[in-house]
Structures are given as C-alpha cells and as structure tokens.
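Team,

Forwarding the record for the chain on the shared tracking sheet. I've put the sequence and predicted structure together so nobody has to dig through attachments.
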Amino acid sequence: MQTQETPRVAIVTGGAGGLGLPIAQRLAEKGHKVAIWDLDAERAETAAAGLPGARGYAVDVTDRDAVNAATTRVVADMGPLGILVTSAGHNGPLAPFADYPQEGWDFVMSLNLNAVFHCCQAGVREMLKTGYGRIVNISSSAAQIGGYNGSAAYVASKGAILSLTKVVAREAAPLGITVNAIAPGAFPTDAEKIHPDPAGYNAMVLERQAVKRRGHAGDIAAAIRFFLSDEAGFITGQSLAVNGGWTMH
C-alpha cells in the first residue's frame, strides 16, 4: 500500500548516527523538515547539512530542561511540531546480572527511558497546540525475548518504553496524537561491536530469523513512515517488531 504523507516538522533524537540518521534521511526525502538532535553539535550539524530543510541541534536528552528548551527552539525555527521519533539510546555495559554496575544501570535508564519520557512529554505539549501529532518510540525486540546475557539494563529500559508508549497513547489519542513503538531486531550498526565474536553473532542472528538476511535501516524507516502516514490515524499504542521474524506475535 502506498502511504500518503503531509510534510511536517519532525524531531529525530539520536538522528546523527545509528538507526536515527537513516530515519532522518527517509523523512527528509519525503519532504518533512527534520530537526536532528544529538549530544554532539558538530555531528548534528554535519548530518543536517546533507538533508534538505534539516537543522542540527545539540541536545542532552537526559536533561528535561534541555529537552524542553530545544523543543521550543525547534518550533520557533521550523514551525509547529508534527512528528517525534525517539531514536537515541545505548546498549550500556555488558555484565552478569548479579554483578551489574549501578552506574551502568543508571546511565542506560537515563538515556533509554528517562529521555524518552522527557521527549514525549515535551512533544505532546507542543502537539496539543495544533491537535495533531505522530510519535514513534524505538524499543527493541530484545525486550520481547529477554535479550542476551549481560544486557539487564538495556532490555529493562526497552521493555519500559513499550509500556510508556501505551500509557502516552491512551491519554494522547483523544487529543489527535498517536503514539506507537518500533521494536527492531538485530541490525548491523556500531552497537554490535560490543560482541566479542562478530561472525558467530551474525550466524546466530540469521539462524533465529525466519527471513535469512540481515535487516537494514530502510526496513526500520519504512515501518516508521507507515506509523507517520495519514492512513495510520486509527493505529495507536502498538509495537511493531521489525526483526525478520525472530519473534512472532
């Protein structure tokens, strides 16, 4: 099905790298004006420079005041906010659960969960002004399968995103705002560098997937664009696993 999209102002957190950059690229290609958020100002500005109508912003998404200020600035610079994609995140350290470091847990929760709360809250406040909004949060299929050994903070944070998405969706839907989540499987990004045996990890992924190829950024971008489309206005509070059939629900 060919989806229809009305050009909007979109914020993509973590939009200068990882899965966030190709998401931002696909949105820009479809005419959306994209605000790329990254902790590093140079990375954000460099990423935005290659996209039509995009702007880069240095934002610490773990800082609620910084998120609120940046959201206000985006609206002043680019116009009313219509789209929010929360892509910023981190795997954190790998460690047995019994020995998982407190500082690692706090770091992952701050970036993967608290930041999504801050961004969704600021986004909803702006979207209420126009009575329209589309929010897509990036979770992980790891939250649906328990992840892998040593990933307690990452899996817990991504699972919490799925629940937060439902909470926000239920409150925001009567106000014209839909909120959904994407749960990517194992995608070949820099995040995979934490695994000590890349070849073995790649073989394990392909064995567990029903689709025998590795996913690519376009798979995620296509799913997000569906949630953002005009045709998806009756879909909210949902999570879509984009993982080649690793999990099936």
